[in-house]
Amino acid sequence: MFVNVPVKDLHRSKSFYTALGFDYFGMTDDMASVIVSERTQIMLLTEPTFAGYARNEVADPAKTTQAILVLGLDDQEQVDELLGKAVAAGAEELGEPVTAGGRYQRHFADPDGHHWSALCIAAPGS
Asked: pTM of the prediction?
């Protein structure tokens, strides 16, 4: 899966995702491919490049929410670690941790305002 997100400043966004510990598959002057897993990448596209692919006007993620992007992790420690890295790299923590329904989840907005969640789910019967 490739999730495409518009970014205002590609250099700032690349620095942010590098600080979270992600590597890159490829980069050009107007886009970068962040490797999340073997089959999942986040495509950071400058707003003009993103607009060239979009059928509708590009929304401002700091003012609207089109999607909540969730990163599944193995345990609560990894969730807390990722949130700590995100905040240290310029993200804004959103709300309180969620511990209902067998999950542990924390939310943040990246420097462009995209809503992200770090999540781990307890095994049934845990």
From this structure: 0.85
Which neighbouring-strand residues pair with 34? 24, 42
Q: What is the DSSP letter of 102?
A: T
Question: Top-level CATH class of 65-126?
Answer: alpha beta
The strand pair at 2-7 and 68-72 is best described as unpaired
Q: Which SS3 state, helix, strand or coil, does residue 73 take?
A: coil
2.60.40.1740, 3.10.180.10, 1.10.10.10, 3.40.50.11540: which CATH number matches 1-53?
Answer: 3.10.180.10
Q: How do residues 83-123 score in pLDDT, each as one tens digit?
A: 999 999 999 999 999 998 899 999 999 999 999 999 999 75
Core vs surface per residue 12-45: b (16+ CB within 10 A) or e: ebbebbeebeeeeeeeeeebbbbebeeeebbbbb
- Of the candidates 8, 4, 119, the residue with the CA atom closest to the CA atom of residue 62: 8
